[in-house]
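Board notes (copied after class):
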Amino acid sequence: MSLLEDTILLIVFFSEDKISPYDFTLNNMIFLIAKQSGRLRKIDFKPTACGFYSYKVRSALENLLDDTITIKDGGMVLTDWGDYLVGLLLGELDEDYIDIVRDVVDFFQGLSPEEVLVFLYYRYPEYFKDVKLMQIIEKNKTDLAIELYRKEKISIETLSEILGVSIEYLANLLKKKQLL
């Protein structure tokens, strides 16, 4: 199996939320894992209105479906064979990489697709050149970014950076919203 396929198995294993094979969550997770780990560089991600997409991720997922991953109630779950392989992977892959996968999965838990998109857009703006997409993100960025902060997914410094305001101004805003 490839590192990409291994990564997909680990994501399904660590995820508490059901991840649909048909939405962009898996692609967005793998994009962040690739960026944070420096691995999976050969995957060509394209920005979309829902985050990132790669045909290689889709192909790898199709290779895993049925034998190692199955769809249950709209989400991916590991088969017995998939559970066995994850047990092997946890012993074979380096702990730093496994920690990155676990951290990315934890970060995504409980986030809406819109909140993920705002995070991705502001963390990796060089990928988002489409003016129409930028307008969609800008429209709701304040509420979505504050929600990321409220869910403890980003720091007050990152929130300040996303909103383009000083930390002092932000502190006053958060006090008014009773979030600080």
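Comment from the instructor: The CA atoms of residues 19 and 75 lie 5 Å apart. The first strand starts at residue 46 and ends at 48.
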